[in-house]
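Tokens as discussed.
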């Protein structure tokens, strides 16, 4: 099986590719524009893997996408490429609409033309390439908006009410994917996932930012009162869920994916401080906690997200393998053990490497 993965050099895409290639589950064509969030150093060793190909292509570039489909002839598409950071979407929403909405429409158009041209005669496996084709759209729980403290967790039937420009752009992309299924019959599956954490996450997101700031003795900036709740999922558990949905999900159906780990931001940061204290005790007077600083809240900040994952758990037998405490320990340890990856991201050296190696693409 050959899968075209968009955004495979980002945080979740790279975890997915590392997992798929380490189990030799599928050949991969990674289509990624290498924005600031794309880092080929998150895919160590894959440059020599014959089952892995990389295409530096922007999903907004229709001709380039058509060429990629023509040349690689994928059996399935997993669409992760997106602008993903809420704070950036507040400062500059334009590129979020361009990539997440227009880019997704472009991909849908190209994938649809490709799928319509696939052979619809059964082969030795008993089904046709056209019947087997899937487009899996990877989305977020942020499309459901702000969840009151005592309300039940988001199900697949929860109405959309996005708050941030990022969330609105992802909601729009989900609607486009459903429309391409309903109108043109494109065989799609959709997943909406909660906050991921784990290795190789760009240190603008809460957990890696806090780990690296703490290790450097810098303030830990908690937005507002830190009482906002997120449901945390280890990225490797997410990658496994995505694989199960691609393999066994019902066409046209949506699956919510969560970690069963609702925590306030303050609880997360305090847990990080405790974990760091065990791994690398600090000589700061009252420990890493002394670095926690309340800063101005994010505009439009959603107070709570929580995911009801019963559908994927009951129908596909998936459940998270990591507890939050174990996952957090492993993540802290990973950042501590990979100072080179961290330093090259923080200094911008990874960008110089990209421009030297992919300047012509
Ligand atoms: P990321 O920001 O780490 O990576 C995004 C990747 O997409 C990067 O490699 C980037 O180079 C690429 N990209 C951006 N614009 C592109 C374009 N125009 N053309 C081609 N490639 C482009 O994001 P992530 O955290 O890995 O998230 C991946 C997907 O999962 C996104 O769709 C996001 O909305 C969704 N998601 C993320 C989380 C999370 O907690 N991180 C949770 C739920 C859903
Ligand atoms: O819920 C899924 C979403 O999770 C994904 O769709 C997004 O792509 C992903 O970025 C993430 O969005 P969040 O906004 O929840 O993630 P972030 O790490 O930016 O922030 C997590 C929480 O921590 C949020 O309530 C804001 C808060 N925060 C964040 C940062 C960066 C702070 O308090 N201080 C910070 O410095």
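Sequence:
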């Amino acid at each position: 099986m050959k899968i075209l993965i968009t955004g495979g050099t980002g945080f979740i895409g790279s975890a997915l590719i590392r997992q798929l290639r380490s189990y030799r589950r599928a050949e991969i064509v990674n289509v990624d524009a290498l924005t600031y969030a794309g880092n080929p150093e998150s895919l160590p060793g894959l440059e020599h893997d014959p089952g892995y190909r990389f295409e530096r292509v922007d999903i907004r570039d229709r001709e380039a996408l058509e060429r990629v489909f023509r040349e690689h002839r994928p059996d399935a598409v997993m669409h992760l490429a997106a602008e993903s950071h809420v704070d950036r979407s507040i400062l500059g929403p334009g590129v979020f609409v361009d990539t997440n909405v227009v880019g997704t429409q472009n991909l849908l158009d190209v994938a649809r033309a490709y799928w319509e041209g696939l052979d619809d005669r059964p082969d030795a496996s008993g089904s046709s390439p056209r019947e087997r084709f899937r487009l899996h759209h990877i989305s977020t729980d942020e499309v459901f908006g702000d969840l009151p403290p005592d309300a039940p967790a988001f199900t697949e039937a929860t109405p959309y009410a996005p708050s941030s420009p990022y969330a609105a752009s992802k909601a729009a992309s989900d609607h486009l994917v459903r429309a391409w299924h309903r109108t043109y019959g494109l065989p799609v599956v959709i997943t909406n996932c909660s906050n991921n954490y784990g290795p190789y996450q760009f240190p603008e997101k809460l957990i890696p930012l806090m780990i690296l700031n703490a290790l450097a003795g810098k303030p830990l900036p908690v937005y507002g009162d830190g009482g906002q709740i997120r449901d945390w999922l280890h990225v490797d558990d997410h990658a496994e869920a995505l694989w199960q949905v691609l393999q066994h999900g019902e066409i046209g159906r949506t699956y919510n994916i969560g970690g069963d780990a609702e925590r306030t931001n303050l609880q997360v940061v305090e847990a990080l401080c405790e974990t760091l204290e065990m791994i690398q005790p600090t000589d700061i007077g009252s420990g890493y906690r002394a670095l926690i600083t309340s800063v101005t809240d994010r505009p439009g900040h959603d107070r709570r997200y929580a995911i009801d994952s019963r559908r994927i758990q009951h129908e596909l037998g998936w459940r998270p393998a990591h507890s939050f405490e174990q996952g957090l320990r492993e993540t802290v340890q990973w950042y501590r053990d990979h100072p080179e990856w961290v330093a090259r991201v923080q200094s911008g050296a990874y960008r110089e490497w990209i421009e030297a190696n992919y300047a012509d693409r």
